[in-house]
Design goal:
This protein has helices spanning 3-15, 24-36, 47-52, 59-69, 77-84, 92-105, 108-121, 125-141, 143-153, 157-173, 195-221, 227-244. With 245 residues, the chain is mainly α.
Length: 245
């Protein structure tokens, strides 16, 4: 094994250590530091080797690898984009890793391509739930960019239907002051509901909250003193209103 391969392997092993949602931010800082340090300094030419670890027999290494690729932004796009083409061949853990890598990269183009891929392949509705949940997470962190994506995704009818009712509720009523709207209050699952159905129910609730948070943020940005921010917010709200009416 060359020095370069050892370096990549070491990084992947570190990545395989945790990456749970609760400590994700801390780990992201830690890994970013390692990438830039002399201990595990990685060059752009080595990203391709890192992408090769996506074929590792260790699922944790595969998962960690796809997530760290996100730290390299646009330089990792070709590898992540290529990986999404085989999205449905992988297990749930890897699929989650792909979505989170896309989140880290944070590019509209990759996400729109992914939406297009889902639409063209006519995947079952469960696959759309994954995309809807992910986009709402992206939207929560990047409201303007996320809502721009939503307005573009409206041409993918089956995905759009999952957002439309919630966006109508928030935009048309503009009832944004409620801390816990009635439809978001957690209730015990109905008797007989499977674990998968319960997980999906909770994710749907989170999705609605993420959408509400993003739209509320844009309404606030519409009142911004910064002209560019205000202009962009107005443009997004106009697009959304047009899309749902």
């Amino acid at each position: 094994m060359t020095d370069s391969q050892e370096k990549i392997q070491k990084l992947a092993e570190i990545l395989a250590g945790s990456w749970s949602r609760s400590d994700f931010k801390d780990d992201r800082v830690k890994i970013t530091g390692l990438v830039k340090s002399d201990v595990v300094k990685i060059t752009l030419s080595e990203i391709e080797q890192l992408a090769g670890l996506l074929k590792s027999s260790n699922p944790k290494v595969r998962y960690g690898t796809i997530k760290v690729l996100g730290l390299f932004g646009k330089h990792a796009n070709p590898f992540v984009n290529d990986f999404t083409k085989d999205f449905f061949k992988y297990d749930g853990e890897q699929q989650r890793g792909i979505l989170e890598a896309l989140h880290l990269i944070g590019t509209k183009d990759v996400l729109l391509e992914y939406g297009k891929l889902l639409d063209e392949m006519q995947q079952p509705i469960q696959s759309f739930y994954k995309l809807v949940f992910f986009v709402s997470e992206f939207m929560r962190d990047y409201p303007l960019e996320g809502l721009t994506i939503i307005s573009k995704i409206s041409k993918f009818e089956r995905i759009w239907e999952m957002y439309k009712i919630t966006i109508q509720e928030v935009l048309l009523k503009e009832s944004l002051a409620e801390d816990q709207p009635e439809h978001l209050i957690y209730r015990p699952p109905p008797i007989g509901m499977s674990q998968e159905q319960e997980r999906r129910r909770v994710e749907y609730g989170i999705t609605k909250m993420n959408i509400q948070t993003a739209i509320k943020t844009v309404f606030e940005q519409e009142k911004s003193k910064d002209k560019a921010t205000k202009k962009e917010a107005k443009k997004i709200l106009k697009k959304l209103k047009k899309a749902i009416l």
